[in-house]
Design goal:
The chain is of the alpha/beta class and about 240 residues long. It is built from 7 helices and 4 strands; from the N terminus they run H-E-H-E-H-E-H-E-H-H-H. It starts with 13 loop residues before the first helix and ends in a 5-residue tail after the last helix. The N terminus is likely disordered.
Length: about 240
């Protein structure tokens, strides 16, 4: 039985949250970043994607509450580009460990939904520790084919989610070499070592329709993974 139609944790009172948690609600936490995405996409891009996926999850499952998004992550590779604000890998790992410990005081399950590739390693370490401590915390990492950063894929996603925030007329091609080839350079010198535009890929051809299809595919995969973990939600 649902006690409240709200899906945003921050909009509920403590007694409402207690009742939802007692009914088995799962807390979904969007994890993003504040970092450059070229001249055409907003700094919030990764957070917007993570938020949208959590919202999709809550829309499909009445047992999900969505926590306020964490808009800072491990973005040191984007140093040198104005607007990037990174808390670093170590701080992110510790933050998520403490967040998970606190959240599991209320919720029996916590889902971490990541929107930024640079967060993956610290998040995986944090979840490994939390699960070692006996906490049922899972990490969801969206996977899709496409260019690595601020290229066609992310531009299409943002055209589907927030077209008003995309400045398509300013989009420029960045370094289009395969990510595997770029990784050694990125690790030693960051994004600035390989592209002046801050883009890894080519935003040319991006469209809202393509972004919607991509978002649907990512969300469907996440929902299937979620259902395998939690089970089928009650109506």
């Amino acid at each position: 039985m649902r006690h409240d139609s709200g899906v945003r944790l921050a909009d509920l009172t403590s007694p409402q949250v207690r009742a939802r948690a007692a009914d088995g609600a799962v807390l979904a936490v969007p994890l993003g970043s504040t970092e450059q995405h070229g001249a055409h996409l907003p700094l919030t891009t990764d957070t917007e994607v993570a938020q949208a996926l959590c919202d999709r999850l809550a829309a499909a499952r009445p047992d999900v509450l969505v926590a306020p998004a964490l808009p800072y992550g491990s973005s040191g590779e984007h140093a040198g580009f104005a607007g990037t604000v990174s808390i670093g890998a170590e701080a992110l790992e510790h933050l998520v460990v403490e967040l998970g410990r606190s959240a599991t005081d209320t919720f029996s399950r916590v889902a971490l939904v990541n929107g930024h590739g640079g967060n993956c390693a610290p998040l995986e370490r944090a979840v490994e520790l939390l699960r070692y401590e006996g906490r049922d915390v899972r990490l969801f990492l969206p996977r899709y084919a496409g260019d690595a950063h601020a290229g066609r894929s992310e531009t299409s996603l943002m055209l589907a989610l927030r077209p008003d925030a995309v400045r398509s007329e300013l989009a420029e091609t960045g370094d289009t070499r395969p990510l595997a080839e770029l990784l050694p350079l990125l690790r030693s010198g960051g994004i600035a070592a390989v592209t002046r535009t801050g883009v890894l890929g080519d935003p040319t051809g991006a469209s809202a329709d393509e972004g919607q299809r991509l978002l649907d595919a990512i969300a469907d995969a996440m929902l299937a993974e979620f259902a395998a973990w939690v089970g089928t939600a009650a109506a």
